[in-house]
Amino acid sequence: MTLSNTHRQVPDAVSSLTNDPILRLPEVERQTGLKKTYIYALVKKGEFPTPIKLGERASGWLSSEVCQWVQDRVAISRAGGK
């Protein structure tokens, strides 16, 4: 593999990320109506998307995964489920 092949993949990766931004906790709280403690409790139970580690003390969630979670909650609610 040459370096030029590796560099061609980077713009595609960046392009896909800009179409699916990473949300930080305040935005996730705003979009879900949930607070930090409950979000992390749901993550621990496997009932909410797992955050992406961004750095030593920073994490975030893919917008598409949070949106899908919200849509799933709406569908469950409308169907009369839990």
Automatic annotation (TrEMBL):
Q: Which domain of life is it from?
A: Bacteria
A matching Pfam family = Phage_AlpA
Name of protein: Helix-turn-helix transcriptional regulator
Question: Which organism is this protein's natural source?
Answer: Microbulbifer echini
